[in-house]
Design brief:
Pfam families: PAS_4. By secondary structure, this protein is α+β, with helices and mostly antiparallel strands. The chain has six helices and five strands. The N and C termini lie far apart (60 Å).
Length: 147
């Protein structure tokens, strides 16, 4: 028997997704954007209605399409999360760095998590991309290595 959906809980969850200080993108299996939270809106300058239903690769040509497709294929096949650290790939989406303390960096360093989102049948139908701003950490580590 399916769990009853409490609309209050759905509302809270949507608020969390919008307010959390990480980027949240939900892609369908054709890499069309379905969810675009306020972090993504603020850092990209693009409103949700400008990107929803459009290809992530068309909106952000800097994304290494071959690399991301390979990562997503693994997530879909195994049904498990995948990660990318800034040391491996400095960013997924090229955002300017807006942090005053770490202002010496030209762009936002990012860690990325890819999460499989299964439909009611258990088949992975969507991918959630979570982008973490790790610019402060990257800057400090680079300064430590330099010293």
């Amino acid at each position: 028997m399916p769990a009853q959906i409490d609309m209050k809980e759905v509302h809270w969850l949507l608020d969390i997704v919008q307010c959390i200080d990480v980027g949240v993108i939900v892609l369908d299996r054709q890499y069309q954007v379905e969810v675009w939270n306020s972090f993504m809106e603020n850092h990209s300058g693009m409103q949700p209605d400008e990107v929803q239903g459009k290809s992530l690769f068309d909106q952000f040509p800097e994304i290494d399409e071959t690399w991301l497709r390979r990562k997503v294929d693994t997530v879909v096949q195994l049904g498990t999360r995948a990660f990318s650290l800034w040391e491996q790939r400095p960013y997924l989406v090229h955002f300017k760095n807006y942090q005053p303390i770490t202002g010496q960096e030209d762009f936002m360093y990012q860690n990325v998590t890819l999460l499989p989102l299964s439909g009611p049948t258990g088949v992975v139908e969507h991918i959630c991309v979570v982008i973490y701003d790790v610019t402060a950490t990257a800057t400090l580590k680079k300064q430590l290595n330099k010293a």
